[in-house]
Amino acid sequence: MSNRIEQLDSIRGLASLTVLWHHMWMITPVLPIVFSYSPLRLAVYGHAAVILFFILSGFVLALPFLSHKQGPYLGYLVKRICRIYLPYVVSLFVAIVLANGIAKGDTGGLSGWIDRFWNYGWDGRIIMEHMALVANIHTDAYNTVVWSLIHEMRISIIFPLIMLLVIRLSWQRSLLVCVLLSSVASLNGIFEIERSNGYMTTYFDTLHFVSFFIIGALLAKHRAVLTESYAKLGLAAKTALSLAAVAAYGYSKMVEYILPEPYAGVLTEYGIATGACVLIIAALSSVRLAKLLQKRPVILVGKISYSLYLYHFIILVALVHLLNGVLPIPVIYAFVLILSIAAAALSYRFVEMPSAKLGRRLEQRLGQGLKLKTAQYKSTPPDSAGL
User: Fold this and answer.
1) Are 73 and 294 in contact (CB under 8 A)?
2) What distance in Å separates the CA atoms of residue 213 and residue 159, rounded to the nearest whole number?
3) For 78-130, what is each residue's pLDDT tens digit?
4) Does residue 351 carry a pLDDT above 80?
5) Where are the alpha helices (DSSP H) in 67-168?
6) How does pLDDT run across 299-347, given as a tens digit for each residue?
7) Interacting residues of 84 by C-beta distance below 8 A, sequence separation 6+
8) Is the pLDDT of residue 372 over 90?
């Protein structure tokens, strides 16, 4: 039985679009005041979208554990590798080929941020580093979105242990664990124990991001109470809560004008997480919001959200290298949006879905194999059990 919840898929899809628009904005950061202080900020706040991804991953991964339907660890891990790693490797190959085939160095007249990503060529060490995925990767090579996938994969490996804590501890103690993990992770920002080769790629960063997987798992664990409580709120209370959530999600970064790093960054991300949690609960509770999120175009974007996340940056860099100076930037961006959705749909159909099906088959076979071995062991006479 599928644990997929369409509203959450749709939220992930919309968040993937904000990452795409964020990278466009990074190349041509126009109207900085408008995008920094108005509600339009939500449309280009890519980092907030990634925190939302982590919480959604924690929520969805927790469901089989909470319903006691999760199989053996090896089957879980193989399924997760097929789900995350295989589509990623295909996208990495595409990025490397395009980087070596069409990159022309300086794109000219843009922010300069984009020029550094396709300058590595056929660097075997960097390629193997990216193939490993869980390493401390140079995220300024090939496809910058890899930085979040590093943490998705690392945390996926230990997620069953995380669920042991979430299931056994109260929500208060679980949140205390989150604070402790983020506090320990912050030590790296103070003492520079581990150097990051890319954007937030250290194991200390992973320790901090574990907190958001825990928060997602807590939402899943207590979703019945939370959704019931939200549904009982009046219109005024829901409106106030929604405005507070938008403020927390979009504007927590303002604490960075007051506090030094790393504390400001941690508080920013917990503010984002707070707003994201309200959004998730509202999506699960509100009939009106659920209907909006279940509109066919939104659902379609939600289904291809992972592939959209993988390919949008590759297409963006490729088209800027090919067309900058030939077509106006707004026209290039229109092509980027169209081609990114098209490429994501193709990837979903021919890479992501087959990879997910392979993962489920392997998980099932491993589960059946374990049951067979267990049955054989139980049927073995006691005097020959050790033979």
Assistant:
1) no
2) 8
3) 999 999 999 999 999 999 999 999 887 777 768 778 888 998 889 999 999 99
4) yes
5) 73-102, 124-132, 146-168
6) 999 999 999 999 999 999 999 999 998 999 999 999 999 999 999 999 9
7) 149, 152, 153, 156
8) no
Contact 239, 14 (CB under 8 A): no
Q: What is the spatial distance between Cα 272 and Cα 53, in angstroms, rounded to a whole number?
A: 11
Structure tokens of 65?
A: 């554990």
* Three-state secondary-structure class, residue 324: strand
Closest by CA to 81, choosing from 22, 24, 133, is 133
Lowest mean pLDDT among 213-217, 355-359, 367-371: 367-371
* Residue 210 identity: V
Structure tokens at 127: 């390629």
Letter for the amino acid at 234?
A: G
CA separation for the pair 51, 186 (Å, rounded): 17
Mean pLDDT of 197-216: 97
Other CB atoms within a 10 A radius of the CB of residue 8 amount to 19
How far apart, in Å, are the Cα atoms of 105 and each of 143, 303, 321?
Answer: 16, 35, 8
Is residue 192 left, alpha or beta, with left meaning phi > 0 and alpha meaning psi from -120 to 50?
left
pTM over 0.85: yes
What are the structure tokens assigned to 349, written together?
């159909």
Let me know: does 206 contact 151? Beta carbons within 8 Å: yes
Name residue, tokens 């489920």.
360
d(CA 69, CA 63): 8
- Strand partners for 324: 327
